[in-house]
Amino acid sequence: METPIYGLTVRDVTKHFKRSKKPEDKLRFTKKIKNILKPEKEIIRAVDGISLDVNIGEIYGILGANGSGKSTLIRLISTLLLPDSGSIHVFGDDVVSNSMKVRRIMNRVSVEASFFKRLSSAENLIYAARLYGISSSEANKKAQSILDRLGFETKRMDEEMESLSRGMQQKVAIARALLTTPMLLLLDEPTTGLDPKSKRDVQAFIEEIRNDRNAVIVLTTHDMAEAERLCDRVAIIDNGKFIAEGTVKELLAMVPAKENTTTTLEDVFIALTGKNLEEGDA
Amino acid sequence: MLNIRRETIISYAFIERNFNLLKRYLNWEILFFSYSIVNALTIGLIMVGRGSSQDVLYLVIGALIWGFLSIMMREVSDAITWERWEGTIEYTFMAPIYRITHLVGSCFFAILYGLLRTGLVLAFMPLFFGEHIDLGSANWLTMGVTVCVSSLSFIGIGLMAAIFPLLSPEKGQAATGILQSVLLLISGIYYDIAVLPDWLQPLSHISPATYTLRSIRAAMLENASIESQAGNLLLLLGIGIVLIPFGFWVFHLAEKYAKRVGRLKRSG
Q1: More confident residue, A255 or A81
Q2: Which of A64-78, A216-230, B39-53 has the least mean pLDDT?
Q3: What sign has the CA pseudo-torsion B20, B22, B25, B27?
Q4: Any idea where the domains of chain A sit in the sequence?
Q5: Nearest Cβ partner for B262 among A17, A107, A118
Q6: Which of B61, B93, B101, B123 has the most crowded Cβ, counting Cβ within 10 A?
Q7: Which of B88, B97, B259 sits opposite A115 (nearest CB)?
Q8: Contact A242/A276 with Cβ under 8 angstroms?
Q9: Per-residue pLDDT tens over the stretch B190-246
């Protein structure tokens, strides 16, 4: 029997970092000096043996608190980090050995909309599009159409990025990712810190992409309602490990409802991780 | 396979972006340009009234060429520093581009910008020095060829300098400055390398700036032809041929290390 090719396949991926340990306050002088010369290191298991498959046309949600490993996993998929072990394939291509091919069909929106702040959104978008071999005229046309659909006033495209609100910057970040028509779209907390209106605009647009195109979308979030609304399947990540995975319905069924109440995704998260989503561990 | 047309368009993205940034920071550019003029004047004026017009020009050439070479090295390295601070480096490294395309674009901008700024400073010099400098006997062709050939070596050094901000945006710029200072010391920018201690002189012979200055001074002060400078030019070419691939290789190693330990993440 042939193995099916998924849009995204992650197998047993691990990424550990070494970090200097915080020295104790009451250390003897000699130990303090020793610590400065050779600081003690601790291992951070940012991603610890994660596996997942995402089908074409599916939105796969990763739900986790701050520091749980969501962004590290996204960086591993997007070729910005090299895994310590395991493998990641995008439409059958390995992200390490065939990174150039993978980069052509993938893009990412991160929680911080990183741009050249003094350049206008048009200049930033044209620059980003050129890196994918897209001409400035095509980029301009596409950017206008995407920004328009996102509810961004396109007449403000010539304003410097630093004069735009966080919500508007994030919309430009989404346009930057979609300009290249990616088959794998990595959305790393795309609505965190946005005002309710911008949040709704972005969420509606993600739904639109799902309906319009057969892309693979991975969405990390700590917004339960967003996960429920957008994701076909959701994984809960804690301390670098997936502790549950399934459709929202399947996850809700994992925790029995309390008297006269219905179980929410938040109840599931708290029951499985022992913490709420605002807590972080890194 | 490398599609030259596509890679050229992509390389242009970096040139266009940097010129756009230059326009946005025009006030700062005017300030830096004024500083370059003041710097060249301060150094040239040391010899006014003490030495001949040749001596004044000797120092002014040192200041100008050092300015040009510093701009080239710094701009290549700053291209990375800037992206680290803005957080865009992850997007550049995630794009389907060859690193050579990325860095060649940054290097081309550095050369164009360096030539533009140094040319403007040079144009201002006669206004201040008047009869104290005589450019009448300069061989501009030899000077131009030397600048072009030496650019190769300095691109190589710039590529190596770019690994510092790649690994640490906070301390990387300072490390690039240290590298520049060492080159300034050993290359005879304002003095003959013969005055350096014996143990330091071998380093002068491997610095491309030594041969660049030797050739440009000969062209500007003695009307030296390209043929007469063939030895210096060949040495510069040789150093460039070695340093550019070496620079790329070092950068590649640094990029791999940064991806292994997670250094590309935005900081600052």
Answers
A1: A81
A2: B39-53
A3: negative
A4: 112-181
A5: A17
A6: B61
A7: B88
A8: no
A9: 999 999 999 999 999 999 999 999 999 999 999 999 999 999 999 999 999 999 999
Instruction: Name the residue facing B10 among A103, A130, A160 (closest C-beta).
Output: A130
Residues A218-232, buried b or exposed e (16+ Cβ, 10 A)? bbbbbbbebbbebbe
> Which residues have a Cβ under 8 Å from the Cβ of B84 and sit 6 or more positions away?
B165, B166, B169, B172, B266, B267, B268
pLDDT in tens, B21-71: 999 999 999 999 999 999 999 998 888 878 788 888 899 999 998 898 888
> What pLDDT, in 10s, does the model give residues B73-100?
888 888 888 898 888 999 999 999 999 8
Separation between Cα atoms, residue B231 and residue B205, nearest integer Å: 13
Contacts of A128 in chain B (CB under 8 A): 91, 95
ipTM: 0.88
- Tokens standing for residue A97: 């050995």
Number of H helices, E strands in chain A: 10, 10
A137 touches chain B (CB under 8 A): no
Partnered with residue A108 across adjacent β-strands are A186
Residue of chain B whose Cα is closest to the Cα of A19: B261
Instruction: List chain B domain ranges.
Output: 4-259
Q: Give the CA angle between residues B152, B154, B157 to the nearest 5°.
A: 115
- Tell whether A123 is within 8 A of chain B (Cβ): yes
**Nearest-by-CA chain B residue for A186:** B94
- Give the integer Cα–Cα distance in Å for A145 and A94: 33
* pTM exceeds 0.80, yes or no: yes
- Interchain pair B86, A116: CB under 8 A: yes
User: Are the beta carbons of A80 and B10 separated by less than 8 Å?
Assistant: no
Two tokens, residue A44: 């951070």
Q: Is A131 in contact with B256 (Cβ distance < 8 A)?
A: no
CA dist A81 and A73 (Å) reads 9
A127 touching B, CB under 8 A? yes
Nearest to A16, CA basis, from A97, A87, A76:
A76
List, in sequence order, every residue forming a beta bridge with B8; answer none if it has no partner: none
A91 CB within 8 Å of a chain B CB: no
Q: Is B90 helix (H, G, I), strand (E, B) or coil?
A: helix
- Residues contacting A184, CB < 8 A, separation 6+: A7, A8, A77, A90, A91, A105, A106, A107, A215, A216, A217, A218
As given in the structure block, the two tokens for residue A275 are: 């913490």
Spatial strand order of the sheet with A93-94 comes to A41-54, A8-20, A85-90, A93-94
Contact A114 B6 (CB under 8 A): no
| Range list of H helices, chain A | 29-37, 70-77, 99-104, 121-130, 136-149, 166-178, 196-212, 224-230, 248-252, 265-273
A100 touching B, CB under 8 A? yes
